[in-house]
Each structure stands twice: as C-alpha cells, then as structure tokens.
Amino acid sequence: METAFQIALIVFSALLALLVLMHKGKGGGLSDMFGGGMQSSVGGSSVAERNLDRITVVVGLVWAGIVVVLGLLMKS
Questions:
Q1: Number of H helices, E strands in the chain
Q2: Domain that holds residue 57
Q3: Does the residue 39 lie in any domain?
Q4: Is the pTM of this model over 0.85?
Q5: For residue 8, which of 52, 53, 69 has the smallest C-alpha distance?
Q6: Which of 1, 23, 55, 72 has the fewest Cβ atoms nearer than 10 Å?
C-alpha cells in the first residue's frame, strides 16, 4: 500500500511541476529574466488559462493529500 502511494507521489510531483511550468508569467518574476516579459499580454485570462489554473489546484490538492496519507502510513 505504501509503495503505491510513493509511486503516486512521484507521478503527481512531476505532473504538478509540468503544470506550474506551463503557466504564463505574470511579470516581475523570474520569467521576465528569461524572456517571458517580451510577450504582449492580452486583457483577461483565456478559458485555457483558467482551466489550467483549476487543474493545477486540483493536482496540488491531490499531491498534498498523498503526502499526508504517506506520512500517516509511515508513522504507523
């Protein structure tokens, strides 16, 4: 059981990292250092960006849940 949660943690960690990297830079951060600030910004966020935000939040919550469950399994 513990091994399944460890594998799930690895998968969700990689997925969460990819989702975070897919977000557009909002300006003023590290993304501007590497050329992210050169793109013109469109007023408001698109449907795709909002869906990406929602998916990232859900994957982050699942990741946090897996961390808590793994902590409880390792403790007992």
A1: 3, 0
A2: 1-6+48-76
A3: no
A4: no
A5: 69
A6: 1
DSSP letter assigned to residue 44:
S
CA distance 49 to 37: 17
3-class SS at 38? helix
34 falls within a domain:
no
Give how many domains the chain has, as a whole number.
Answer: 1
Q: At what angle do helices 2-22 and 47-75 cross, to 10 degrees?
A: 150
Q: What is the DSSP letter of 34?
A: T
Distance of CA 36 to the CA centre of its chain: 19
pLDDT in tens, the chain (76 residues): 999 999 999 999 999 999 999 887 766 545 555 555 555 555 556 888 889 999 999 999 999 999 999 999 999 8
| Structural domain includes residue 73 | yes
Helix (H) or strand (E) holding 13: helix 2-22
